[in-house]
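Closing statement on the inosine 5'-triphosphate sub-project.
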Amino acid sequence: MRLVFATNNQHKLDEVRHILGSEHEVLSLNDIGCHEDIPETADTLQGNSAQKALFVWERYGVPCFADDTGLEVEALGGAPGVYSARYAGEGHDSAANRRKLLQQMQAENNRRAQFRTVVTLVVDNKPYFFEGIVKGRIITHEQGDGGFGYDSLFVPDEYSEEEKTFAQLTQEQKNTISHRGRAISKMAQWLQTATFCRVHR
Ligand code: ITT
């Protein structure tokens, strides 16, 4: 199926194309000529992902999906959460966000955290939601130079013995266990069984 992924984040696009493989053709906002800054004004991940996907559906009328992701840190009461992109201010500056997180966590013993993604898929004018979560912990210094965003500060439980952050895993390894990998795989599974894209014989 041909689907638009409503994101301006090239890292997300690469990850999702890798997860969906050749079964679905994933177009970017660029590919459909959408150069607008899509509003994200909701105060939940589900609200923001719906806002992005519905924006594209309403303007372009094509099947599309969006994700909104937050890093939820136990000791910070779930922050930065839905505000993860703007944690250190409006600039979407990932390095500044990581510095602020390290500083907020300086005196904390409880380092538990999770990434949570909510994907909204819009087909036939209806939104469908898929959630993915990965649990782990925040380390005290950056480690690894792959990935993006908060990846170099997050050790998923699946790699706790090796003490490897998301930024030290291959894309394949991250996708297999990640919040986005899990949510997108649920969407792919649902697409396989959904009646609207079946050939009715
Ligand atoms: P779009 O809204 O255009 O999709 P974005 O970068 O604004 O892209 P989000 O609002 O979903 O994406 O992400 C919020 C923040 O969380 C952002 O700063 C990212 O860097 C970070 N983030 C999202 N996914 C991540 C991941 O898989 N690993 C590490 N950080 C991630």
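DSSP finds five helices and seven strands in the chain. With this model delivered, the sub-project is considered complete and its resources will be redirected to Aim 3.
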